[in-house]
Design a protein that fits this description.
The structure is a single chain. With about 180 residues, the protein is an alpha/beta fold. Helix content is about 35%, strand content about 20%. It contains six helices and five strands; from the N terminus they run βααβαβαβαβα.
Length: about 180
Amino acid sequence: MLSLAAMKILTISGSTRTDSANTRLLSALPTLFPQHTFQYYVQINQLPLFQAELDKYPWHTEVVDWRKAIADADAVIISIPEYIHNMPALIKNALEWVTSSGELAQKRTLAMTFTPHEPRGEKAMQSLLWSLQALDANVVVSLPLYQQEVEFDINGQLIENEAREMLIEAINILVN
Protein backbone atom coordinates (compact mmCIF):
# COMPACT_ATOMS: atom_id res chain seq x y z
CA MET A 1 0.00 0.00 0.00
CA LEU A 2 1.39 3.39 -0.99
CA SER A 3 1.33 6.53 1.13
CA LEU A 4 -1.60 8.79 0.30
CA ALA A 5 0.36 12.00 0.83
CA ALA A 6 3.28 12.85 -1.41
CA MET A 7 6.55 12.94 0.48
CA LYS A 8 9.80 14.74 -0.09
CA ILE A 9 12.55 12.12 0.18
CA LEU A 10 16.21 13.06 0.44
CA THR A 11 18.54 10.42 -1.02
CA ILE A 12 22.18 10.30 0.00
CA SER A 13 24.94 8.17 -1.46
CA GLY A 14 27.83 7.47 0.86
CA SER A 15 30.12 6.59 -2.05
CA THR A 16 33.04 8.70 -3.21
CA ARG A 17 33.04 7.22 -6.73
CA THR A 18 31.89 9.39 -9.62
CA ASP A 19 30.06 6.49 -11.28
CA SER A 20 28.89 4.91 -8.05
CA ALA A 21 26.59 1.89 -7.98
CA ASN A 22 24.92 3.45 -4.92
CA THR A 23 24.23 6.67 -6.84
CA ARG A 24 22.90 4.71 -9.81
CA LEU A 25 20.56 2.78 -7.50
CA LEU A 26 19.25 5.98 -5.88
CA SER A 27 18.77 7.58 -9.30
CA ALA A 28 16.39 4.78 -10.29
CA LEU A 29 13.98 5.39 -7.41
CA PRO A 30 11.87 8.30 -8.74
CA THR A 31 10.36 6.21 -11.54
CA LEU A 32 9.29 3.55 -9.01
CA PHE A 33 7.51 6.15 -6.87
CA PRO A 34 6.43 9.04 -9.11
CA GLN A 35 3.98 10.31 -6.47
CA HIS A 36 6.91 11.31 -4.24
CA THR A 37 9.57 13.94 -4.78
CA PHE A 38 13.14 12.67 -4.60
CA GLN A 39 16.03 15.03 -4.03
CA TYR A 40 19.48 13.55 -4.47
CA TYR A 41 21.98 15.37 -2.26
CA VAL A 42 25.05 15.77 -4.49
CA GLN A 43 27.25 18.06 -2.41
CA ILE A 44 28.09 15.66 0.41
CA ASN A 45 31.72 15.60 -0.74
CA GLN A 46 31.84 19.41 -0.39
CA LEU A 47 31.32 19.35 3.37
CA PRO A 48 34.41 20.40 5.30
CA LEU A 49 36.05 17.87 7.56
CA PHE A 50 34.07 17.92 10.80
CA GLN A 51 35.81 19.63 13.69
CA ALA A 52 33.83 20.46 16.82
CA GLU A 53 35.37 23.92 17.05
CA LEU A 54 34.02 24.74 13.57
CA ASP A 55 30.47 23.74 14.54
CA LYS A 56 29.41 27.28 15.44
CA TYR A 57 28.15 30.44 13.83
CA PRO A 58 28.99 31.38 11.14
CA TRP A 59 28.75 27.89 9.67
CA HIS A 60 30.17 26.98 6.28
CA THR A 61 27.59 27.44 3.52
CA GLU A 62 27.88 23.73 2.68
CA VAL A 63 26.98 22.81 6.28
CA VAL A 64 23.96 25.13 6.28
CA ASP A 65 22.78 23.66 2.94
CA TRP A 66 23.29 20.09 4.19
CA ARG A 67 21.33 20.68 7.38
CA LYS A 68 18.53 22.44 5.50
CA ALA A 69 18.23 19.59 2.98
CA ILE A 70 17.70 17.10 5.80
CA ALA A 71 15.35 19.39 7.73
CA ASP A 72 13.18 20.00 4.63
CA ALA A 73 12.82 16.28 3.84
CA ASP A 74 9.98 14.13 5.11
CA ALA A 75 12.20 11.06 4.92
CA VAL A 76 15.80 10.13 4.15
CA ILE A 77 17.32 7.22 2.24
CA ILE A 78 21.03 6.59 2.79
CA SER A 79 22.78 4.04 0.57
CA ILE A 80 26.40 3.17 1.26
CA PRO A 81 29.15 0.82 0.11
CA GLU A 82 31.51 -0.82 2.58
CA TYR A 83 35.06 0.48 2.92
CA ILE A 84 37.46 -1.54 5.11
CA HIS A 85 34.55 -3.16 6.97
CA ASN A 86 32.95 0.18 7.78
CA MET A 87 30.86 2.96 6.33
CA PRO A 88 32.79 5.40 4.15
CA ALA A 89 34.38 8.41 5.85
CA LEU A 90 32.35 10.66 3.55
CA ILE A 91 29.01 9.69 5.12
CA LYS A 92 30.46 9.58 8.63
CA ASN A 93 31.69 13.15 8.19
CA ALA A 94 28.28 14.26 6.89
CA LEU A 95 26.49 12.65 9.82
CA GLU A 96 28.86 14.32 12.28
CA TRP A 97 27.75 17.71 10.92
CA VAL A 98 24.19 17.08 12.17
CA THR A 99 25.16 15.81 15.62
CA SER A 100 24.70 19.12 17.43
CA SER A 101 21.92 20.51 15.24
CA GLY A 102 19.64 17.45 15.31
CA GLU A 103 18.10 17.42 11.82
CA LEU A 104 17.96 13.62 11.78
CA ALA A 105 16.21 13.35 15.15
CA GLN A 106 13.03 11.32 14.58
CA LYS A 107 13.45 11.66 10.78
CA ARG A 108 12.05 8.61 9.00
CA THR A 109 15.10 6.87 7.55
CA LEU A 110 15.88 3.93 5.29
CA ALA A 111 19.45 2.67 5.77
CA MET A 112 20.84 0.63 2.87
CA THR A 113 24.07 -1.00 1.91
CA PHE A 114 24.70 -1.72 -1.76
CA THR A 115 27.78 -3.88 -2.11
CA PRO A 116 29.05 -6.42 -4.67
CA HIS A 117 28.06 -9.59 -2.76
CA GLU A 118 27.40 -11.16 0.63
CA PRO A 119 28.68 -10.81 3.31
CA ARG A 120 30.11 -7.41 2.31
CA GLY A 121 28.11 -4.59 3.78
CA GLU A 122 27.21 -6.23 7.08
CA LYS A 123 29.76 -4.30 9.15
CA ALA A 124 29.09 -1.07 7.25
CA MET A 125 25.37 -1.44 7.96
CA GLN A 126 26.04 -1.96 11.66
CA SER A 127 28.26 1.13 11.71
CA LEU A 128 25.63 3.20 9.89
CA LEU A 129 22.88 2.01 12.22
CA TRP A 130 24.93 2.85 15.31
CA SER A 131 25.52 6.37 13.99
CA LEU A 132 21.87 6.87 13.07
CA GLN A 133 20.84 5.60 16.50
CA ALA A 134 23.20 8.09 18.14
CA LEU A 135 21.57 10.84 16.06
CA ASP A 136 18.10 9.66 17.18
CA ALA A 137 17.02 8.99 13.59
CA ASN A 138 13.84 6.96 13.18
CA VAL A 139 15.25 4.06 11.16
CA VAL A 140 12.05 2.40 10.02
CA VAL A 141 13.82 -0.18 7.89
CA SER A 142 17.31 -1.28 6.88
CA LEU A 143 18.05 -3.13 3.68
CA PRO A 144 21.21 -4.88 2.50
CA LEU A 145 21.30 -5.11 -1.29
CA TYR A 146 23.91 -6.78 -3.46
CA GLN A 147 25.00 -5.59 -6.87
CA GLN A 148 25.01 -9.13 -8.26
CA GLU A 149 21.25 -9.32 -7.54
CA VAL A 150 20.18 -5.90 -8.85
CA GLU A 151 19.86 -5.35 -12.58
CA PHE A 152 19.45 -2.13 -14.55
CA ASP A 153 18.10 -1.70 -18.06
CA ILE A 154 19.84 0.50 -20.66
CA ASN A 155 17.97 3.55 -19.30
CA GLY A 156 19.23 2.98 -15.76
CA GLN A 157 15.89 1.68 -14.48
CA LEU A 158 15.62 -1.34 -12.21
CA ILE A 159 14.64 -4.58 -13.90
CA GLU A 160 11.90 -6.52 -12.15
CA ASN A 161 13.30 -9.17 -9.84
CA GLU A 162 13.30 -10.12 -6.16
CA ALA A 163 15.83 -7.46 -5.14
CA ARG A 164 13.75 -4.75 -6.84
CA GLU A 165 10.63 -5.96 -5.01
CA MET A 166 12.48 -5.88 -1.66
CA LEU A 167 13.56 -2.30 -2.38
CA ILE A 168 9.99 -1.29 -3.28
CA GLU A 169 8.68 -2.86 -0.08
CA ALA A 170 11.35 -1.10 2.02
CA ILE A 171 10.38 2.27 0.53
CA ASN A 172 6.70 1.51 1.08
CA ILE A 173 7.51 0.95 4.75
CA LEU A 174 9.44 4.23 4.80
CA VAL A 175 6.61 6.31 3.34
CA ASN A 176 3.72 4.73 5.27
